[in-house]
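Running low. Got one?
___
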Amino acid sequence: MTNPIEEGTAEHRGDRHIRHYLLHLPRPVEEVWPALASSAGLRGWLAAAEPFEPRLGGAVGLRLPEGTAWGRITAWDVERVAEYTVEGRDRIRFHLEPGHTKGTTVRFTHESKDARDPGWRDRFEHLLAYVEASTL
């Protein structure tokens, strides 16, 4: 069985730190997309997302324990790509691909000026449990 959360490379380019993860989720793309690209879905595993305007250039606010990170949706291709660029977290990108066994592969990229890992593995454990338990 494939590891559902694979940590990929960590790169350093100039003042940017880029982390990659490969996620193998046990649901089809149309069921995973809402978890990554809707206010209700993000609230279920990451943070309350208010406002959340689901379109390219739309506003997004992620209500994190340390405060709200405000930003914009900087890439949006329904059921394929959702990218959020928010203050203090910089660029967060989800690229969805149909998996081999009715699942979904998510290629995740986080690009930031901050070198520390904000705990993505733990957050992805929550995402995996949310997707497995949800009737998205």
The chain has three helices and eight strands.
